[in-house]
Amino acid sequence: MNVLLVDDEPMMLEQLKMMIEPQCPLWNLYPAADGSQAMHLSEEKNFQLAFLDIEMPGRSGLELAEDLKKKFPNIEIVMITAHQDFEYAKQSIKVGVAEYLTKPLIESELREVVKRFANDVDFMEYSQLVISALHIVHEEYDEALNLPNVANKIHVNPSYLSRRFSDEVGQSFSEYVTNYRVDMAKTLLKANKDKSISDIAEQVGFNRLHYFSTTFKKKLGVSPKEYRERSD
């Protein structure tokens, strides 16, 4: 599921990502700093859910919500604000906002909201076979994962799993595992600045630092060290 996150505060965007990702690892999260960036992203992606800050420079969250609803009639909107304002709440209801959260965000409240929209919606397009494989990857990505041992765990022929996985997910099993590990590394590099890059590489399942660094740079265009420095 493609999920839009819009807030003019970079720390708030990062907080939203770090709270949502562990609960819904299959969601594709797209951050935007304002309404213009959000609408630009909407030209390229079809969004099913959006978390919007109400007060932003330029187009407000409520105006953006109206624009998104016109573009994606079935999109669910979660509005976030620093103020408990009845007028905002009334306008939110008029626009068709599904949920209303106040800052500072309380993780347990956000989790409840996310849970409402999760309900395995990520997995609707996948077969039970592929869902089982994905769950193993998300739970054991830090271990020595390969297609034969995952196939063995779910009692299926490795060649058959490989074909079904590629057909449904749109990438090979090994490619998905590598991409998922890199995504987890990105989060850890920003959240654990006291940890060495070697420790983080090991924590996400890379047993060689050189291979981790080479793979990371190939996918993101910067080394793990550069990525961490840019996120300061």
UniProtKB/TrEMBL annotation:
<dbReference type="InterPro" id="IPR018062">
    <property type="entry name" value="HTH_AraC-typ_CS"/>
</dbReference>
<keyword id="KW-0597">Phosphoprotein</keyword>
<dbReference type="InterPro" id="IPR018060">
    <property type="entry name" value="HTH_AraC"/>
</dbReference>
<feature type="modified residue" description="4-aspartylphosphate">
    <location>
        <position position="53"/>
    </location>
</feature>
<protein>
    <submittedName>
        <fullName>Response regulator</fullName>
    </submittedName>
</protein>
<keyword id="KW-0804">Transcription</keyword>
<dbReference type="InterPro" id="IPR001789">
    <property type="entry name" value="Sig_transdc_resp-reg_receiver"/>
</dbReference>
<feature type="domain" description="Response regulatory">
    <location>
        <begin position="2"/>
        <end position="118"/>
    </location>
</feature>
<dbReference type="InterPro" id="IPR011006">
    <property type="entry name" value="CheY-like_superfamily"/>
</dbReference>
<dbReference type="Pfam" id="PF12833">
    <property type="entry name" value="HTH_18"/>
</dbReference>
<dbReference type="Pfam" id="PF00072">
    <property type="entry name" value="Response_reg"/>
</dbReference>
<dbReference type="InterPro" id="IPR020449">
    <property type="entry name" value="Tscrpt_reg_AraC-type_HTH"/>
</dbReference>
<keyword id="KW-0805">Transcription regulation</keyword>
<dbReference type="InterPro" id="IPR009057">
    <property type="entry name" value="Homeodomain-like_sf"/>
</dbReference>
<keyword id="KW-0238">DNA-binding</keyword>
<feature type="domain" description="HTH araC/xylS-type">
    <location>
        <begin position="131"/>
        <end position="230"/>
    </location>
</feature>
